[in-house]
Amino acid sequence: MNNTRRALALALVTLAGAAAPASADPVIAGPATPDELAVLAVGGVNTTHAARRADQVALHRLSTTDGAYKGRILFPSDTLTKSSNSLNAPIRNAGLRRSADGRFLLFNGGRGAAGTSNQDILNATTVRVAADGTWTDQRLGTAYMTTGEGPVGTVSLDGTRKWLGINHNTKPIATIAEGETELTQVGAFPTPTVPVTSIDLVDGSLVVTGITGVSRLPGGLPTAQNTTTPPQEFIAAPIALDATFLDTDGVAGADTAYVVRDGRGVWKFALDAGTWKSRGVVGGSYGYVAARAVAGAIEVYLTTANTAKLVKFVDTAEVGGDVKTTGVSTLAYAPARARYTGLAFTPTGGFPADGTAYPATAPAMTASATTVDTHIGATTKGSVTLEVFDPNSADVTVTATSSNQTILPNDKIAISGTGAVRTATFDPIATGTATVTFTARSGDDAVTATLTLKVSPAVADPGGHYYSGPVDLSAAIDVGGDYFLGISDEVNTVHLFKKGVSGGSLAQWNQGFPGGETDFEGATRFGNTIVWSGSHGNNRSGSARPERRFLAFQTISGSGATVGLEWRNSYTRLWQQWKDWDASNGHGLGANKLKFNTATVPGLLPNAPNGFNVEGLTMAPGSSSVAWFGMRAPTITGADGIERAVILPVNNLDKLTSDSVNAEFGAPIFLDLGGRSIRDISKNAKDQYLISAGTGDTDDSLKNWALYTWDGNVDHQPQMVKELPTDEARIGAWEGIAELPTDLVAGSRVLMLADSGDTGLGKSYGQYVTIGEPIAGPAAVTGITATGKPGALDASWNAADRATQYYVTVKTAAGAHAPGSPKFVTGTSASFEGLTAGTEYTVQVRPQNVATRAVPGTPATATPTQGARVATTTTLEFQGSNILGEVQKLVATVSDPNARGTIQFFGSGQRLQDSFATGFDPSVGANVYTHTFPVVNGKAVIDITDARGAGMTDLQAKFTTANAENYLSSESAVAPTLFEYRPKQPWAEIVSITGDRVVGSRIAITVKLGGYKPSELWREVIRTEFNTRLNGAVNRTRLVGDTQETSSGYAALNEDGLATIYTTALAAGDHRISVQVPGYSTGYVTQWTDEIPVTIAPAGSPAPEVKPIKRPAIAVKLSGPGVTRTGQALTLTAKLSDPTLTGTVTFFNYSTALGTAVPVVNGVATTSVTNTSPQLGIYARFDPVVAERTTTAGATSQAVPLLRAATDLPRSGTVATKTTLAVSGSTGTVTVSPVGGDAFAIRDVYGYAEILEGERVVGFAPTRVGVATIDLSSLGAGPHTLRARYVSSDETRSLSSEIVQTDAPAPVGGSVPATLSLTLGAPATFGAFTPGVEREYTATTKATVISTAGDAALSVSEPGHLTNGAFSLPQPLRVELGRSAWSGPTANEDVPVTFKQAIGANDALRTGAYSKTLTFTLSTTQP
Fold first, then answer.
1. Looking at the domain assignment, is residue 20 inside a domain?
2. In what residue span(s) does the Fibronectin type-III domain sit (predicted)?
3. Which single residue of 13, 753, 785, 1242 has CA 20 to 30 Å from 1355?
4. 3-state secondary structure 674-726
5. What is the CA radius of gyration of the chain?
């Protein structure tokens, strides 16, 4: 215990000599004006908020202009209350409505005292408040609702008969009239559905909101029982919470609605030809809404979803138009511990209200963001808006500090503005992350808010910036103004961003999108429809991904910041139809001309020329039907040798409303982009197209990114107008076009986006790019000549205008490239060596520049002559350790260093590949691990670390000459080599399981790796696997985490060896939770933790008691001929640390059980198996008997590694060991050290250690990296003669050993728990202050201190000034402590505490009591 705090409330009260106030009764405010709102405020009595717990309820009157507080009606907290919820969580039973005749306000409550539970269900009542401030309520009976249900709101025409929305999945609407005692059902859902969330009266009908949208109950206002008529949905708005309707066009009847959607803002809808259509959205998270039409606009009022604020925006759109607003502003904050929920306009004529001051509230401050992303040297600095609120003072100062002065010094934070809105701007000087803490201070009160500033490196261009959130934006739609929509090719979510400004998304939409990765790459818009296209191809490793064959259709409303998206439909048949169309020659180019039949076979990358990958999507000129799909792959090479990009027209995109509709295709369009592929394509309103052309995937394509403009005429070719920067570290791939100018001409700017997923930046790059003048392609080349020489030829040609380099090929008649072909040359000649004598070669030259390539010139031929040939020899050297997991390399040496060629390495006849190096293999069209190595200075090297399995391997190197006319090929002798399996043996344990153990609650499970750091085991991230066995199940089931990173049941170990998964997926019952550390490398052995019992209670039940867990240990010993020979008997013996335990032991080879469970007898379980596997990892798991499974862990041993063969292997020798014992207090430490052996001998020391007194085993533990720690607290007082014994798990690897004797005193004594205790005496009082008389007043109390710490300090918070309501004493309070520091323990020591208050003769004093609460702190640094 490091710190104990106690708070002392000082009742520092004085009675002034002046007369008391004339009256202590509340002042009654005048009637409300039409410019006032009534807001339902819940809370204020309970100190904590909890679900269904009753709390105080009040109606606050607030100005619609500035949110000014006008008073309240406070209802009696002992008889009329409302259920609250956990703090900052929404309250969904708190609708407030005004009656249709404008005379009353109505809401639901409970007839129960604050602090009780479920009153709004068990004692539900509906409350009616009249314009004169009087109120009545009507009980709702007990027959209709049960626990978990309840009313969400009440509406009425005139306050007599009422209709209620009910939180019930089949009985959503009920009614009750004056004098009735039970509700009557008047509406029903035909099948159970999610309950309604609010109710209203609209045009004489009952309207409810719910999970799918807004629905109307047909048939007017029913009064008789009706259990069959369902509400009819007329506005589709998923997850709708509340709605309000207005008449804005002068024609009777509502024509405009604002619908709050959970976490998705407030959506505007307008009635258009009998259909309600979306008209945009105002972002944010809200709870309840009210609105009214004013001159030329609509004022919309909302309470926030966290129930903390009342906000407002003004919609100035034309009648029925898209929402148009300058933004949301805050009108008021809820008082301390209260919640702002339902709201309505005050009754006609207003209502009187208690005019007491606004409830005492500390300053409040909120930041517009919790994270700000920026970069070094940002033109537009990263900033955040701070909203500051203090109802008791206008004098609020705001300061800021940075947690990391290296990244963001305090003087690089600028705060501007006054009043309620301040702006903080950041100018960081280094990359990294800093926490910024803002402090708003008003007098003695202060409040803080924090945000995280993430700073990226300087951008590649002054026009650059970063978009955080999705790291790989790959398609975009301009939605007008300063905003665009972007989508990632990794996560199926649409994001709204502000153009050209570093930062996160402002809104997101994922409704309707499938799970997984659809790899969205293209987007287009026609009318109010947006289409997002998946890539339709394989993934980057060549795996077939059918889920990418997907089109997503959305309906868009609004524009700019108020854009709204609604899911419309998907389409998944396009790929198969394309494939059939190509196979049947539907395009007239020849069957399978576009290569679709093989484009997505497993193993083929989605790249040019042979893959399939949609990367762009746009509409044809002037069309709202014909869509052009821009392809990254395939590319098609024509008869002229020019490789062209492909556009696939779909002529009826607007008709693809379901998979039952067939797509119609147009003729393919082929564009010369210099061998590049289309990575995005977009057009402006004038049908001028911009193409982002990506680096080509074939050996002769241009490797720089470029922008092309095009007029959309299929008979014309695009023109290159800009070379884009290629920067894989800071930019990535240019895959999105977010904004186009009105005219695509030189000097105009476009906003480009990059898929930056491979940069490691964790965000996407954006940049404004200026279009240049068109760049002409090169002229054709002439004068190609070729001359043969011994084993070589020389080629030359004439320079071509505008060419910057030449692509030169030398091929045989069969089309095979000669050595060194193809090559790029900047001059006008080239030489090729290593050619076959007597073979005719054709030389071809094609000029190119940054824009494109010309048609090749007229080829020339030449035949090399024969030269002398030299024999070679190849030798092979093994470098490194032959132990798996260690660095292992093979070095091949060719006898003549002038011999050119390649080396391939083989293991037992199989070609080896490098563990790290990769390269492009044209035979498979993909990057693969390197398996062919060039000879450089006579040598070639391969790294085979982690590439070989355990056992004997015949190693060999084979040299293939590249200049066969001069040198002969050769191969090394075969070298038999043993790869030994002597892995590192880490261990793992579950160190914490936290959270309420109830279904649906979030539980955190943390595992820790022991023995090694993760980086010492594997060069990449190690992801641990979390599992459970429920209610005695035999097999483990993987747990699902509730974060994206852990949704597969895996969590990565950090460098400290810790990994945590957060899950809400644990079902009710008895779990046994374990974690596996998988073996990513044969350099360490897979390990499992013990199984920890966890009981999960059903939802709604109390959390079960967390009982102490017994944690036995277990170890395995192997014996018999099967230890070294496959197919021989192998005896498995498991030993438990506690021989009294009963249960069974199951033995495993990695994750496969070896036979059935074996009973434990006197702490030992033994079985025998025969297994033919050469490499084993054997461990044992103990399962206690059923009665003890909730209190006893399932001990799991460390795995024992074995390497065997049919005959004995030439393994390293058995290691002798030395055992030592050290005793300290009640702990014995047994250390087992190898005697002799190699540098890896400690890996052979695994088994268990025992400490014995005589022949009695007094302690047992597995050895971990040669050490076992054993508890000796069971020994009695007095001296003991102990010995330690190491028992090897595998006597063929290390020998058991024993230390004969250690004398150790038994631990005896007691323990003192860490204690810090601070008790304060009676409250101190100064008595009465006398106005006009200078005097110092004194008051005393005491603080009683108990401390067992090595040091202690007593301190007190800043005294400040005594206050009386809004008044403070001019001079500060002083506090003096009789003692404040200790250098050792103390007990029941009384410390005098003296308070002093000076009063000046001219100090103004206010009638009443002055007081102050101070916090005294007793702390230590040596607990």
1. no
2. 777-868
3. 13
4. CCCEEEEEEECCCCCEEEEEECCCCCCCCCCEEEEEECCCCCCCCEEEEEECC
5. 40
Residue 232 sits in the same domain as residue 332: yes
pLDDT of residue 622: 96
Which tokens hold the place of 362? 């500390």
Q: Residue ranges of the chain with pLDDT lower than 70? A: 1-34, 47-51, 85-91, 146-148, 194, 349, 355-362, 392, 696-701, 920-927, 1300-1310
DSSP 8-class letter at 1084: B
Asked whether residue 1155 is assigned to any structural domain, the reply reads: no
CATH code for position 1286? 2.60.40
Task: Report residue 254: phi and psi, to 5°.
Answer: -65, 140
694-713: pLDDT as tens digits: 886 666 667 789 999 999 99
> 1148-1172, pLDDT tens digit by residue?
999 899 999 999 999 999 999 998 9
1093 and 1016 within one domain: yes
Distance, in Å, from the CA atom of 884 to the CA atom of 951, rounded to the nearest integer, reads 10
Identify whether the C-beta of residue 1243 lies closer than 8 Å to the C-beta of residue 1083: no
Determine the pLDDT at residue 88. Answer: 45
Domain count, the chain: 8
Same domain flag for 432 and 486:
no
Indicate the pairing of strand 3-10 with strand 36-42. Answer: unpaired
- Residue 1316 maps to a domain: no
Q: Are residues 1333 and 1232 in the same domain?
A: no
First to last CA, the chain: 6
Residues 6+ apart with CB under 8 A from 1416: 5, 6, 7, 8, 1318, 1320, 1343, 1354, 1355, 1356, 1357, 1393
Give pTM, 2 decimals: 0.59
Q: In this structure, are residues 236 and 219 in contact, taking their beta carbons and an 8 Å threshold?
A: no
With a CB cutoff of 8 Å and minimum separation 6, the contacts of 273 are: none
The domain that contains 681 carries what CATH number? 2.120.10
* Residue 585 sits in the same domain as residue 732: yes
Domain boundary among 1089, 1106, 1123: 1106
Q: Which domain holds residue 446?
A: 364-456
Whether residue 1181 is contained in a domain is answered as: no
714, 809: one domain: no
**Structure tokens given for 489:** 């090719």
Tokens of 951: 């056992």
Report pLDDT for 7. Answer: 26
CA torsion, ordered 67, 72, 78, 82, to nearest 10 deg:
-40
Query: Which CATH number covers residue 329?
Result: 2.120.10.80
Residue with tokens 């997923």: 757
In sequence order, what are the residues at sequence separation of 6 or more whose Cβ sits closer than 8 angstroms to the Cβ of residue 1386?
Answer: 1345, 1346, 1347, 1352
Residue 787, pLDDT score: 96
Three-class SS state of 121: helix
CATH of the domain at 1009: 2.60.40.10
Measure the CA angle with vertex 630, ends 627 and 631; round to 5°: 135
The reported pLDDT for the residue numbered 360 is 62
CB neighbours of 926 closer than 8 A, spacing ≥ 6? 542, 603, 604, 605, 607, 920
* Final residue belonging to a domain, choices 979, 1002, 1027: 979
Q: Which of 115, 106, 114 shows the shortest CA–CA distance to 76?
A: 114
Nearest in space to 1076 (alpha carbons), one of 1068, 1085, 1065:
1085
pLDDT of amino acid 4: 28
Query: Residue written as tokens 């109830």?
Result: 998
Co-location of 908 and 1034 in the same domain:
no
Same domain, 1000 and 1040: yes
CA atoms 1237, 1243, 1247, 1252: torsion sign: positive
